[in-house]
Amino acid sequence: MGRYLGPVCRLCRREGLQLFLKGNRCLSPKCAVVKRKSPPGVRGKKRMAKISDYGTELREKQKVKRMYGLGEKQFFNTFVKAENKVGKTGDNLIVALEKRLDNIVFKSHFAASRFQSRQLINHGHFRVNGQKVNIPSYAIKAGDVIEARPKSKNLSIIRESLKNISRKGLPSWIEVDENEVKSKILAVPVREDIQLPANEQLIVEFYSK
After folding, report:
1. Exposure of 39 in the CB half-sphere (CA atoms within 13 A)
2. How many domains does one find in the chain?
3. Would you say the pTM of this structure is higher than 0.85?
């Protein structure tokens, strides 16, 4: 299945919470999740509230996958790599998703959403340790420095997004220089450092069947 091209507010309504797929626009009181609590579709309001264990696990997987903007194949491949590492598979999965370059650019407030972050990276606007990287899934390491290239530092979408640092804050493991549009990874995050409304164990159980 290819990339989803439909209305992203529909995805938020399906998961029952704001996934912030539109960035700052999701803070508007007109947000679809705020206005309409029911799932999308003509039968949304009539759907039974009861859900099976499989359905609960599926929804959790879909929620995290959509939050990070990954396709099914890419998300599953990330899970397989997490499963083959030492430690808890669920923790490894969330940390691997959080270490993606597109997520770092988003969390550094250089982009309003992960989708916008991927676009900027694909177009070559960012460098890692001085080298251009146009792969959104690139995994960062402790000590890495992510910086917008000189010609990109004054892009309106980057400067506009940086205005939200004081309001939204930064993760403890990322240090940002707003003037230079530069961020440094102080440490690789652990699960406790990542504020994510998800139960990753349900994802592990979903793929274990």
Report:
1. 10
2. 2
3. no
